Amino acid sequence: MAKKKFISFGQPFLGREEIDSVKKVINSSWLGTGKITQQFEKDFSKFKKTKFAISVNSCTAALHLTLLSMNLKKTDEVITTPMTFASTINSIILSGAKPILADISKNDFNIDPKEIIKKINRNTKAILIVHFAGLPCDMSEIIRISNKYKIKIIEDCAHAIESKYKKKEVGNFGYSGCYSFYSNKNITTGEGGMLTCKDRKLAEIVKIMRLHGMTRDAWKRYMPDNTPKNLPYQHYDILHTGLKYNMIDLNAALGIKQLNKINYMWKKRKKLYDTYYNELKNYPIKLQNNYKYNFKHGYHLFLFVFDTNKFKQKNIRDVFLKYLNVNKIGGGVHYRSVTNMKNYKSLFNWNKKTCPNAYEIGNNIVSLPLYPGLSSIDQKYIIRKVKKFIESKII
C-alpha cells in the first residue's frame, strides 16, 4: 500500500507550552533581547554545567565571535574537519584566518587526532572540532595535543547538546562551546545558538560583540528599572566593531520550554536510533561506531555509508535518495566533504586527495529521519523500504 503522507526528514517537537511561552512574550510588548533571553542563558548554563552562556542568533555566530576574539591574522591557521557544514569553514575565513583540514576517522567520522598532529605548525592557533552527529570526539587525545602545542580548542556542538565524553559535558573542554538551536536541532528556538565558556574575558567580549559592539543594549537603556535615579542618563558607547548576532526574547521563549523537556526528547530519539541500528547493522553499510572511550551520544542524526564494493549500482547513495523521495521519505546528506565545494576548491585548491576518508564517506553517506515526533509506524515503513532497496541492489 502506497504511503499517503510524506515523512519529513526532521521537524521540531513543539507543544502547547511553547505556544503559551511565545504568546506571553508577545503580550508583554517586548520582543527583543531582554529578561527572557537572560533567563534562557541561565537555564542553559545550569544544564551544561558551565560558567558562562551567551545567547546568539546561530551556532555560526558563536563560532565567528569565538574566532574574532582571538584577533587572528591572515597567516594564522585553524585546523578543522572536512566533514562539517559550511558555517565551520566560513567562520574561520571570515575571522581572517586560514582553515586547515585534518581528515576523519573511518570508524566514527570525527576528526582524527593523528591527522591533527600532521597539520600543526608555528601558525596553528586553534583546533576547531565538530562532535559529528552527536558522537563526541576523542577529547583526551585532542586535549593532549592542545596542551603540548599550546593551541586553543573550539568545540562545535551543533549536533551535541546532550553529549558527554567520559561523563563530562561536551562544550566544556576548550576555549568555547558553540551550539545550534536551528529548527531541526535537538532543541530549537527557530533560529538561534549559544556560546559557552569559562573565561570571563571571552564572555564579556562576546556579549558586546554580539550586538554592534555596544556597551548597553536597548533593553538596558530604555527600561525604567535599569536607570538608577541617583545617576545621570547613561549613553551607550561603541567599544568594538561588532555584529548583529543577538538572540531575542521570542526565540528564547521557545528555548526555555524546549530545555525543560530535553531529556524526554533525547530518550525518544535514542529509542528510534537504536531501532534503526539493530535493524540495519547486518546490511552492507557502514555505521558510525566508537569503541575507544565512554560517551553519551546526542543522537542528532542516524546515518550510514554505503559499502560501494557490495553494490552493482553506480552512485548508489544518490539513487537511494531518489528512491526515498519517490516513497515519500525525507532523506539527508550529512555531509559531503567540504573539499567537494566549488568555493573552497577555488580558494584553497582542495580536492579529493586532500582528505580521502572524508571524500569517500561524504560521497556515500545518507541520513534517515530521526526526531521525537517520528512514529513507530512511520519508522517501520522507512526500515522496510531501506531493506528492500539494499536487498535489490546488492551484488
Q: Could you characterize what this model shows?
A:
By secondary structure, the protein is α/β, with parallel strands linked by helices. It has two domains: 16-261, 3-Layer(aba) Sandwich (Aspartate Aminotransferase, domain 2); 263-393, Aspartate Aminotransferase, domain 1, CATH 3.90.1150. The protein is built from 14 helices and 13 strands. Strands 1-9-8-5-4-2-3 form a seven-stranded mixed sheet, sandwiched between helices. Strands 7-6-11 form a three-stranded antiparallel sheet, with no helix packed on it. Strands 10-12-13 form a three-stranded antiparallel sheet, covered by helices on one side. The longest helix is centred in the last third of the chain and has 19 residues, at 262-280. The protein starts with 15 loop residues before the first helix and ends with a helix. The model has no long low-confidence stretch (mean pLDDT 95).
Mean pLDDT: 95
Structurally, how many domains make up the residues? 2
Low-confidence stretches: none
CATH class of the largest domain: Alpha Beta
The 3D shape can be described as: globular
- N→C terminal distance: 28 Å
